[in-house]
Amino acid sequence: MSQAGVGVIFAGEGNYEEARRRLEESLRLDPAQPEAQSNMCADLVHLGRAGEAAAHCTQGLKMRPEYGMAGEVAGKGKRDCGEPSTRLTQPDSNR
């Protein structure tokens, strides 16, 4: 199993710091993983590191724009940092 996959398991258990370490290692080896970028974003939000989270969400969205949830998390991260929220994806026409 990949480091990113192990990171997801740790995040599911609420161990966000270990998840962050595993995802960081996975992204160090191959930063072109939109799923890992998105998961790193979510973990960093849980750890209260919203500014860093927004950067990972942006990277993930550049690689895979259909990750609408990542855009919402990025917006949350920006609000948590006191920055204005911006939607990083196109509005979902199903809403």
Helix percentage = 55-70%
How much is the radius of gyration in Å?
13 Å
Mean pLDDT across all residues, rounded? 76
Unreliable stretches: 77-95
CATH H level, superfamily name: Tetratricopeptide repeat domain
Number of separate structural domains: 1
Output the number of helix runs: 5
CATH level 1 name = Mainly Alpha
Basic shape: globular
How far from one another are the termini?
A: 36 Å
Order of helices and strands: HHHHH
- Percent of sequence in beta strands: under 5%
CATH architecture: Alpha Horseshoe
Structural class of the helices, strands and pairings? mainly alpha
Can you walk through the features of this model?
With 95 residues, the protein is mainly α. The chain has a single domain, classed as Alpha Horseshoe (Serine Threonine Protein Phosphatase 5, Tetratricopeptide repeat), CATH 1.25.40.10. It is built from five helices and no strands. The chain has helices spanning 3-12, 16-29, 34-46, 50-63, 68-80. Helix 4 runs antiparallel to helix 5 (68-80). The chain is globular and about 30 Å long. The model is unreliable at 77-95 (pLDDT under 50).
